[in-house]
Design brief:
Length: about 650
């Protein structure tokens, strides 16, 4: 009965979505306030219905209701409770219901917290958002019903893919979807602005907090997925340029550009065309990611193996929303060409450079991801675009971005003093260079570009720290005055500096583990010793042990520094009962300088086990950096100035010799 109630709530939510799409939009067109005001309660009702539907599916999983086909295919009675719950979104149908829940959830937040928005704009935004929810609601009901019954009900289920039975994977999809779907609000604001024919500084300020919130969730979601792949898949790496990884990375790049572009539009009413286009493109990339994962065109540990008919439906959604929004953009583009005037060397100019580099990097990832698929579809030839292409093209674009990053906050709006800023940052550059030279002196045999990358990371971190020091005039005035200035700084200033510092931390981790990683693959028998990166590992043998829904063979390795035992690693191979699958669990010793990483392979006919040992220097910084970036975003989001409308700017006389931005 609960399952049928959840199905009915889902069907009813589609009807409410249709109402919310049509009636408030019509009211906004004819200026009828009563019709526009119905958008807010409709958004709340729609969220409530989808939430009830999601709870009903969760109940079916928790109680192991094997009369539901979705539960049969993705759960098992012996599965731990946490993985029965995460199994709700560990499949196509359930994950689409989670996607829909996020869509209507963001709309409900706009309805509740968007009281400072003009009624006409809020009604139009909620109407556009509901059109997206309507499309995906119909997709679920018509092609991906999670509540379908199976008769007769089997005694037990087939189980969830074992590699998805992991704590990180229980949280990774919700964060990732919150990021994906969160950008739909920026998209809805952009389409609403095009419909209304009005974009200004207030519009940019209304868009920024929603974009920032989505960016924060996507940052953590991507980092969590990278962390899971690192310790669960047994490859010893953290990023593989997998097409599905790229599908989440591209909206992040475009969303980062959108954040910076909206800042220029808010402060200077410039880049209107570019900001609206970025809002459309960012969510379009999210839709493309959904298509790649669910269309069956990709073979990946991250992809849902579903039939192509569902992919055709999502392709139709992409055509309608991407094609429709771009058509509307083309029709209204000439009305958005007013813009503030500024010199190339200015805060605006630095943010434009940021945008150019980020969007170009996004384009290179897009080409590398889609080209093999397009070639196979057109000619039948299969090729692989791997790490060499992505590392070279993406890495080259990131170098100028990292060099320019500390300059931006120091440049003035409209016209900046590049020489003066360079003099202020000279100390940061010297310290970063000295640290880079120090690394080169230790690792002079190569790789030779790694010290330069490390110097860039230090440069970014020091620049972020010095920004705060400069603003509070540390060392120029008394400590008490500096402290008062520190306490009075807007939270968005702290948020920007913290996020930029997080970028530097992440880059340092990437450089360290990519350049100085060591590996040792060997055959080990009981009592054998192996050395790697100053550690000595002694293999004590392997033993079998039962798990909740698996059996495993655990290798025992004692880890020594010199003659002192410092840790024990317990890598294992797990064999799950439902479905019958074997997975690898790495043994990891975390130290300040990096991770000692051990993987137990197959037992050999001549005795012993194949063992892979890795030492990954500074690898944890790769995930600590995004957490710092998330915290920086949260600081900015807590700034009151992001929660109020922007004042109308007075008309100013532009300086001579400037350039106009569309």
């Amino acid at each position: 009965m609960i399952v049928e109630f959840g199905h009915f709530a889902l069907l009813l939510s589609v009807a409410v979505a249709l109402y919310q799409f049509v009636v408030p939009l019509y009211g906004a067109r004819i200026g009828e306030e009563r019709l526009m005001r119905t958008a807010m309660p409709a958004a709340s009702v729609q969220f409530g219905l989808v939430f009830v539907s999601f709870l009903a599916l969760t109940y079916a999983y928790v109680t192991s209701d094997f009369s539901v086909e979705n539960v049969v295919r993705n759960s098992h009675s012996e599965k731990p409770l946490i993985y029965r719950i995460s199994g709700v979104w560990g499949n196509h149908e359930g994950s689409m219901l989670l996607w829909l829940l996020m869509l209507v959830g963001f709309a409900a937040l706009v309805a509740i917290w968007g009281t400072n928005l003009p009624l006409r704009l809020r009604a139009t935004v909620l109407s556009v958002q509901s059109s997206i929810a309507l499309a995906f609601g119909l997709f679920i009901v018509l092609t991906s019903n999670p509540f379908a019954r199976v008769t007769p009900a089997p005694f037990d289920g087939q189980g969830l893919n074992p590699i998805l039975q992991d704590p990180a994977l229980a949280l990774h999809p919700p964060f990732l979807y919150a990021g994906y779907v969160g950008f739909s609000i920026a998209f809805s604001f952009a389409v609403a602005a095009l419909i209304e024919g009005k974009t200004d500084a207030a519009w940019a300020r209304w868009v920024r907090p929603w974009t920032l919130l989505a960016w924060m969730f996507l940052t953590v979601g991507i980092a969590m997925g990278s962390w899971w792949a690192y310790y669960e898949l047994g490859w010893g790496g953290w990023w593989f340029w997998d097409p599905v990884e790229n599908a989440s990375f591209m909206p992040w790049l475009a969303g980062t550009a959108l954040l910076h572009s909206a800042l220029v539009m808010e402060k200077r009413e410039s880049l209107k065309v570019w900001t609206v286009l970025l809002a459309i493109v960012t969510f379009s990339l999210s839709l493309m990611g959904a298509f790649l994962v669910r269309s069956g065109v990709l073979s990946s540990v991250h992809a849902f193996a579903v039939d192509p008919e569902r992919g055709v439906f999502i392709l139709g959604i992409m055509v309608i929303f991407i094609g429709g929004s771009l058509t509307l953009f083309a029709m209204r583009m000439n009305e958005l060409r007013q813009g503030g005037i500024f010199a190339p060397i200015s805060r605006e100019g630095s943010l434009i450079l940021n945008n150019v580099l980020l969007t170009t990097a996004c384009a290179t990832v897009l080409v590398g991801t889609l080209y093999p698929l397009a070639l196979e579809g057109l000619t039948g030839d299969k090729i692989s675009v791997g790490e060499p292409y992505f590392d070279l093209t993406f890495g080259l674009l990131m170098v100028p971005l990292l060099i320019a990053l500390p300059f931006g906050p120091f440049l003035a709006w409209k016209r900046g003093d590049l020489v003066g800023v360079s003099q202020r940052l000279m100390g940061c550059a010297i310290v970063g260079l000295v640290l880079g030279v120090g690394i080169f002196s230790i690792f002079y045999r190569g790789p030779w570009l790694a010290p330069f990358g490390a110097a860039l990371a230090f440069w970014v971190m020091l620049g972020a720290i010095y920004e705060i020091c400069f603003r509070i005039k540390l060392g120029q005035i008394s400590w008490n005055d500096s402290w008062r200035r520190f306490a009075g700084l807007p939270r968005s200033v702290f948020g920007t500096a913290v996020a930029h510092f997080g970028v530097g931390v992440m880059v340092l981790g990437i450089v360290g583990t990519s350049a100085y990683r060591t590996e040792n693959v060997l055959l080990m028998k009981q009592g054998d010793r192996a050395e790697i990166a100053g550690y000595t590992l002694e293999f004590k043998g392997a033993r079998k042990a039962p798990g909740p829904n698996y059996s495993e063979e655990i290798g025992e390795f004692d880890v020594f520094r010199g003659e002192r035992k410092i840790a024990q690693l317990l890598p294992s191979k797990r064999t799950y009962t439902a479905p019958r699958t074997t997975t690898t669990e790495a043994g990891i010793h975390v130290a300040l300088g990096g991770d000692l990483y051990a993987v137990l392979g197959d037992d050999q006919t001549k005795g012993g086990f194949a063992v892979r040992l890795y030492f990954n220097p500074l690898v944890r910084l790769i995930w600590i950096g995004p957490l710092i970036m998330f915290f920086g975003g949260a600081l900015s989001l807590s700034d009151r100035r992001l929660r109020v409308g922007a004042p109308k700017r007075a008309r100013t006389v532009p300086p001579t010799g400037g350039v106009t931005a569309a």
